[in-house]
User: Fold Transmembrane amino acid transporter protein-domain-containing protein from Leucosporidium creatinivorum.
Amino acid sequence: MLQEKLDKRTSAQEPQVSTQQVLAVEEEKEVAAVEDGVFGGGGGEREGAVNYNTVGWFGTSVLLMKTQIGLGVLSLPYVLSVFGAIPGVFIILGVAIITTWSDLEVGRWKLRHPECYSLSDVGFIIAGPWGREIFGFTYLIFELATVGSAFVGLSVALNAISLHGTCTAVFIAAMAVAALLLASIRTLNKISFLSYIGLASILSAILTLAIAVSLQSRPSLAPQTGPWNKGLLLTNRPSFSDAMLALSTVVFSFAGTPAFLPIASEMKRPRDYMKAAILCQAVVTSTFLIIGIIVYYYCGEYVASPALGSAGPLLKRICYGLALPGLLVSMTIYTHLSAKWVLVRLLRGTPHLTANSIRHWVTWEGCILGCVLVAYLFASAVPSFNSIVGLFGALCGTFLCMQAMALMWLHDEGEEVRSGKKRNWLGSLWCFFVLAIGTFIMIGGTYGSIVSIIDTYKADPGSAWSCADNSGTVPSS
Assistant:
């Protein structure tokens, strides 16, 4: 295509323009055409409009990392204790391989379908209006459950740091107000700068924990006097419900994939998404494996879940203090993405999507308020919220991270086959495998979550808007 346009220009007697210059101009036009798919060039072509397409590839990679690296990584040592070290490591690697393919599939799909902003658009292309509603509802519920989980996680951190300085319901309400303010930032480019701080915060917290457990004589949950044994297991035989709950925990730790398509939609050059995703997955997988192995090796069967409690009360408070900015950034990103999805759904195709108009601002702030309110109700009004989040993760997260991506590839492959191209049987077999394994994890994880919910209600029915100290547990999301 570029060469044909070059031939036309050179035949029009324009010798002063070099081949490289023409190719560069035409390439930039094609890049702009990709950006025009959602925001109309980011609004940069209209005076006074907001330009959404401003995130560079490295900033994108940091955003992708921050959607995945949170306190959920501290559940991975427990996963190793459930399966044993060797199967646990292979399970983490297996999930990492599948989700890495899913993340790269997002980039391939975005270049082929630049009009797609989120998975609801994917659902529309694959299955029409019903597909859009099913994919969109699943995406929004999962994102809002993640925001609610962030509220609870922040209340846990504040309770741990302050030694339960006030009612937990007050902490959750304060975090909802903070989300209203921070998520009002309209472009991901500005939030990406916060992501550097958030990523450094979370990494410093989990590295501090890893160093602390390697230096202590014994973990805080182990007998503090007399002989003791770590109880390290190379392999283990957990019950089916325990195994599926642990497997789902690994999937949830890599479950940032649903947010990747909206993030790619705000890149300067969406074609640079691939290298951003590869860098992200390399860092995330390495971090998960290193932290999981180190903490499990030094704590064994006495590993706390989450692992911050394994280093004792003082280090627990220090680690939560270090992690606090990172938790705030995670809350901001997921609140922003949830509200942006609703905004695009309401204003797409109108100039108000990018214009600094009253309708734009009222709609934008209304979207944020609505998303924060729903997440707040999830976090405060539902007893045993941790188990509920686990259930949403099993039902929604697995589908959005695995099956949806396999359906995306099979849809485009089917179009190419109908146009006369030979079928890629290896790719098709891989997608059917991802569909099968994702469905197995979704069903099994849902079963494990329901068993966990029943056991939790039997042990402690819980209450809405509780003031009790919750710093002994934290959501896995």
Residues 28-222+239-381 form one domain. The CA atoms of residues 72 and 253 lie 6 Å apart. The chain is about 70% helix and 0% strand.
